[in-house]
């Protein structure tokens, strides 16, 4: 059980990252508001699949560097933490999203959502920080990477699903720019707090 102790902090990190505003969640909110949850489900599953592939590729490509050059891992932790603090400030100061316009198109498809993760800076920094901060040093790197990436996506599923559900309610209930600003400040603070787990 001690070998799985890292899963607790990793879960807290993934919750704080995937439940906070970002490109994926804002798109899911808009999609939920426009199309409802079930039509948005392929978008949600595409995000999970894309991040699973991205996170695994990050770990398997950087795993040997981490073993041979411990300073590289520390440098990556520091760089990732600095970017997360910047991202937290951007989230906290973000203007309210405009969900008032309902489109007549169709939701993002599974493959479109999966491909988007490779261009999503938040997904990159999330994967880099996850693998740099929580990938176990011992054992089989391939197995550890796949287990951690899969576990991360299981944690992410209910968090990102909430945003599609929120979208359905937001269009009706959360119309105040002030309410959005308060929410964004809270989410920014949670994002900044995850630096403790990365550098800990």
Automatic annotation (TrEMBL):
It is found in: Cell membrane. GO terms for molecular function: amino acid transmembrane transporter activity. The keyword Transmembrane applies. Coiled coil: none annotated. One of its GO terms (biological process) is cysteine export across plasma membrane. The chain crosses the membrane at residues 41-66, 123-143, 149-170, 182-199. One of its GO terms (cellular component) is plasma membrane. Keywords: Cell membrane, Membrane, Transmembrane, Transmembrane helix. It is a multi-pass membrane protein. Its main location: membrane. PANTHER family: ARGININE EXPORTER PROTEIN ARGO, ARGININE EXPORTER PROTEIN ARGO-RELATED. This is Threonine/homoserine/homoserine lactone efflux protein. It comes from Modicisalibacter muralis.
């Amino acid at each position: 059980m001690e070998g799985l102790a890292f899963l607790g902090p990793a879960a807290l990190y993934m919750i704080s990252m995937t439940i906070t505003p970002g490109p994926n969640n804002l798109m899911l909110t808009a999609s939920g508001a426009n199309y409802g949850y079930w039509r948005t489900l392929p978008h949600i599953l595409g995000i999970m699949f894309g991040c699973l592939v991205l996170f695994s590729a990050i770990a398997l490509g950087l795993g040997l560097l981490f073993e041979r050059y411990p300073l590289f891992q520390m440098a990556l932790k520091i760089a990732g933490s600095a970017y997360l603090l910047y991202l937290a400030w951007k989230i906290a100061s973000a203007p309210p999203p405009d969900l008032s316009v309902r489109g007549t198109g169709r939701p993002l498809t599974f493959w479109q959502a999966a491909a988007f993760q490779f261009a999503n800076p938040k997904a990159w920094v999330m994967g880099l920080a996850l693998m740099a901060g929580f990938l176990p040093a011992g054992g089989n790197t391939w197995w550890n990477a796949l287990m951690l990436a899969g576990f991360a996506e299981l944690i992410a599923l209910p968090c990102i699903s909430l945003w599609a559900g929120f979208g359905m309610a937001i269009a009706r209930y959360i119309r105040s720019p002030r309410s959005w600003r308060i929410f964004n400040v809270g989410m920014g603070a949670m994002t900044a707090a995850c630096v403790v787990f990365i550098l800990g």
